[in-house]
Amino acid sequence: MTGKQLDLFNKPSGRTAIITASGFVLDLTSPDATGLPVEDVARALAYQPRWCGATKHFYSVAEHSVMVSRLVPEQVAYDALWHDAVEFIQGDWPSPLKVYLGRDEINRKLAPIEEALARRFGFALHLPEVKKADLIAMATELRDLLPGAWMDWEHLPPPSAEAIEPIGPERAFALFMARYEAVKHMARPETKQTAVRRRAARGKAR
For residues 146 and 51, is the Cβ–Cβ distance under 8 A? Predict the structure, then answer.
C-alpha cells in the first residue's frame, strides 16, 4: 500500500512537513493522517531507540509498544500498541528532557498530531491502564537493559517477571505488525477523547 498523495493545489513545505517510508507526507501545521500506511509507523518505531540509545543492546520503541500492549487488559491492547505512535516522527524524547523544555507546551504542540493518528488508526489516547503498563515496561527496561546508576526510581512500579531480549529493528518491525494484525479488530471508529476535544475546539472558535 502506498501512502503517496496527489494534491496539485497544496504542496506542503519541507520545513513543516514529514515524509514517511512510503512517500506519505504529513503536514505538521495541519496534520491529516488519512491514508497513512500502518507499515510506515511500524517501521519508523522499529528504528527509534528507547532511552536515547543508552541500552546495552538496540531496543526500539516498537518493541516497547508491543510489550505495553501485552501488559494491559485485553480490551485496551490495541490502544496500548499505539500509545507512543507520535514517536514515529518525534523520536523517543526522555521525560527529563520534556520537563526541562516545558512538558505542557510540548504536549500542547503534539496534541493535534496525536489526535490525527488516533483518528486514522482508531485508538484512544492517554488511558490510565496504558500509563500503568508503560511504567511497568519502563521499570523492566531499567532492570534488563540499562546500566546501573545512582538515581531515584521510586515512582516506578515493580518490573515484569518476563525478561526483555532485544531483537533488532527488522524483527521489531515484524513483531509490531504481527501484534497489530492480532488486535486490529479492536480499533475504534473514533476515540471519545478525540471527539470531545474536537467539540471543545469548535465551541472556542464560536
Answer: yes
CA 22, CA 3: separation in Å to the nearest integer? 5
From the list 160, 161, 140, 142, the residue with the least C-alpha distance to 151 is 142
pLDDT, tens digit, 9 for 90 and up, residues 181-192? 999 999 998 645
Please state the separation of Cα 141 from the chain's center in Å: 17
What residues pair up with 60 in beta bridges, in sequence order? 49
Model pTM score: 0.87
For the chain, list the domains and their CATH numbers: 37-205 (1.10.3210.10)
The grid cell for 81 is: 500498541
Could you read off the pLDDT of 27-57 as tens digits, one per residue? 999 999 999 999 999 999 999 999 999 999 9
The closest of 123, 128, 125 to 78, measured between CA atoms, is: 123
Distance CA 202, CA 206 (A): 7
Among 165, 146, 166, 170, residue whose Cα is nearest residue 156: 146
Helices (H), the chain: 38-46, 61-71, 77-81, 87-90, 95-101, 103-121, 128-145, 169-183, 192-205
